[in-house]
Design a protein that fits this description.
The protein is mainly alpha-helical. The protein has 3 domains: 92 residues, Fumarase/aspartase (N-terminal domain) (Fumarase C, Chain B, domain 1), CATH 1.10.275; 239 residues, Fumarase C, Chain A, domain 2; 59 residues, Fumarase/aspartase (C-terminal domain) (Ribonucleotide Reductase Protein R1, domain 1, Orthogonal Bundle), CATH 1.10.40.30. It has 19 helices and 4 strands. The chain has a two-stranded antiparallel sheet. β1 and β2 form a beta hairpin. The longest helix has 37 residues. It starts with 15 loop residues before the first helix and ends with a helix. The model has no long low-confidence stretch (mean pLDDT 96). Bound molecules: arginine. Arginine binds next to α7.
Length: 462
C-alpha cells in the first residue's frame, strides 16, 4: 500500500469496503493546517532531541510550509487511498522533501496523540469565532434595549399575562444566558489548554522528546497532559464544547420562539425586516420568520450532536479506540451550524421593529396589575394572605362585570373589603407598577439601567 502509514505486517492492502468505511479525509482534511502546525512543533522537538540536523529541520519546515500553501490553494487534495488527514499529509511530505527525510517526522508520535491535539487546536480557534458572534448578538439585544428605554409590555408566566414589564428588561433577560455561554466558552478554553502531543499511541515516547516543548510551541499554556493514556483516550473536552454549543442553540431557540410568537398577527409586537424574513411560493402575502424557525430547528440538531458524541464515548475502554474518530463529524457540525446561524440571527434581532403602542395596549390586560393591588394592601398593613384574597375577589368581580381593576366604584371596592379604598387606583397603572419594582434585578427603569451597566461590566471582564 504505497504511501500508507502501515502495511508491512499485512499480506495485502485493505479491501475497498474497509477503505470506504475507514476513510475520514472527507471531514478531517480541514484539520490539515492544524496537523501541519503540530508537525512543525514536533520537528523542532525532534531537532532539540538530536534526531534532526539543523539543515534537515530547515528542509522539513520548508516542506511543511509548502504543504500548507498547497492545501490553502486547494491544489493538494487527499487521494482515495489515504485513510485520514495524517496519512495523506505524510504521503505528500514524502513527495515534497523525499522519503528519507520525510520518513523521520513520524518518530515519537502517533495519530492518537496527534488527533487529540488537532481537535483542540481546531475548537480553540472556532470557540473564539463563536464567542465573537455571541458578543455581536448580545450587542444587538442591548442596542434594542437601549433604543426602547420606556417601552412596556405584558410579562408572562405560563404564557399568560402576569405583570407588566419593560421591553428592555425582557430583551436583557435574553442577553444574560448568552453572557453565561460566553463565560462557559472561556471556562472550557482553560480545560482545553493542555497538549496531548507526546503521549504517543498511549504510553508516552521513549525517544527522550519533551512534550512541554511541543505544548509551548502550540500555545497550550497549561503544558502537556499529565497522563498519556488519558491524553489519547479522553474526549470530554470535545463533549463539553458540544454541550456549550447545544446550550447556545437552546438559548437562541427560546428567543426564536418568542420572536415567532410576537410576529403573529394576533400578538403583533414586532415586524421583521424584509432582508431577514422569507416569502411563500404560493401565498403572496406571506412574510415568514424563517431565521427564528431555523434557529429553533437547529437547536435540535445541536442537541443531537451532543447526545451522539456522548453515546459514542460511553463504555469505551482505555485507551484509544477507533470509535473516537466519530467525535469529529458531530462537533464540526455543531461549529458549522453556529457559525452560519449566529450572524443571521443577530441580523434579525438588530433589525426587528417593535410596535410599542401595541405592547403598551396589552400590558395592563388580563388583570396583570392584581399583584399591585395586593402589594398596595400590604403597604396599608394587611397581611399578604388576606391581601391576596381581597385582590382575587376584585379580579372575580371585574371579570363578572366586564371591568378593569381601576373601574369599580369606591362603594364596590368597599363591598369587597372595607380596606380596599379608591386610593388603590394610584398603583393601577402600568407605569406605576413597573416603577415600583425598583429592587436590584427588577423591571423599574432605574434597576434596568443598573442592570445594563452590569452587562457591560461582565462583558468587559471576559
Ligand atoms: N483518524 C483517527 C481519528 O480521527 C486517528 C487515527 C488513529 N487511528 C488508529 N488506528 N490508531 O481518531
Amino acid at each position: 500500500n504505497e504511501g500508507s502509514l502501515w502495511g508491512a505486517r499485512f499480506a495485502g492492502g485493505p479491501s475497498p469496503e474497509l477503505q470506504r468505511l475507514s476513510r475520514s479525509t472527507h471531514f478531517d482534511w480541514q484539520l490539515a493546517p492544524y496537523d501541519i502546525r503540530g508537525s512543525r512543533a514536533h520537528a523542532r522537538g525532534l531537532a532539540a532531541a538530536g534526531y534532526l540536523e539543523a539543515g534537515e529541520l530547515e528542509r522539513m519546515l520548508a516542506g511543511l510550509d509548502a504543504l500548507e500553501e498547497r492545501w490553502r490553494s486547494g491544489e493538494m487534495q487527499p487521494r482515495p487511498e489515504d485513510e485520514d488527514v495524517h496519512g495523506a499529509l505524510e504521503a505528500a511530505l514524502l513527495v515534497e522533501i523525499g522519503a528519507e527525510l520525510g520518513g523521520k517526522l513520524r518518530a515519537g508520535r502517533s495519530r492518537n496523540d496527534q488527533i487529540a491535539t488537532l481537535v483542540r487546536l481546531y475548537l480553540r480557534e472556532h470557540a473564539a469565532r463563536i464567542g465573537a458572534e455571541l458578543r455581536a448578538l448580545i450587542g444587538a439585544l442591548a442596542a434594542q434595549a437601549d433604543a426602547h428605554p420606556a417601552a412596556v409590555m405584558p410579562g408572562r408566566t405560563h404564557l399568560q399575562h402576569a405583570q407588566p414589564i419593560l421591553l428592555a428588561h425582557h430583551l436583557l433577560a435574553h442577553a444574560w444566558p448568552l453572557v453565561r455561554d460566553l463565560e462557559r466558552l472561556r471556562d472550557w478554553a482553560v480545560r482545553a489548554d493542555r497538549s496531548p502531543y507526546g503521549a504517543g499511541a498511549l504510553a508516552g515516547s521513549s525517544l527522550g522528546l519533551d512534550p512541554a516543548l511541543v505544548a509551548a510551541d502550540l500555545g497550550f499554556a497549561l503544558g502537556p497532559s499529565e497522563n498519556s493514556i488519558d491524553a489519547t483516550a479522553s474526549r470530554d473536552v470535545v463533549a463539553e464544547f458540544a454541550y456549550v454549543a447545544a446550550q447556545i442553540g437552546i438559548d437562541l431557540s427560546r428567543l426564536a420562539e418568542e420572536i415567532i410568537f410576537w410576529n403573529t398577527r394576533e400578538v403583533g409586537f414586532v415586524t421583521l425586516h424584509d432582508g431577514y424574513s422569507t416569502g411563500s411560493s404560493i401565498m403572496p402575502q406571506k412574510k415568514n420568520p424563517d431565521i427564528a424557525e431555523l434557529a429553533r430547528g437547529k437547536a435540535g440538531r445541536l442537541i443531537g450532536d451532543l447526545t451522539g458524541l456522548l453515546t459514542t464515548l460511553k463504555g469505551l475502554p482505555l485507551a484509544y479506540n477507533r470509535d473516537l474518530q466519530e467525535d469529529k463529524e458531530p462537533v464540526f457540525d455543531a461549529v458549522e451550524t453556529l457559525e452560519v446561524l449566529l450572524p443571521a440571527f443577530t441580523g434579525m434581532v438588530a433589525t426587528l421593529t417593535f410596535h410599542v403602542e401595541r405592547m403598551a395596549e396589552l400590558a395592563p390586560q388580563g388583570f396583570s396589575l392584581a399583584t399591585d393591588v395586593a402589594d398596595w394592601l400590604v403597604r396599608q398593613g394587611v397581611p399578604f394572605r388576606e391581601a391576596h384574597e381581597i385582590s382575587g375577589a376584585l379580579v372575580a368581580h371585574c371579570e363578572r362585570s366586564g371591568l378593569e381593576l381601576h373601574e369599580p366604584s369606591d362603594a364596590d371596592y368597599a363591598a369587597i373589603d372595607p380596606r380596599l379604598t379608591g386610593a388603590v387606583r394610584e398603583v393601577l397603572t402600568v407605569e406605576g407598577s413597573i416603577a415600583s419594582r425598583s429592587a436590584a434585578g427588577g423591571t423599574a427603569a432605574s434597576a434596568v439601567a443598573a442592570q445594563r451597566a452590569h452587562l457591560d461590566e461582565r462583558l468587559a471582564a471576559l
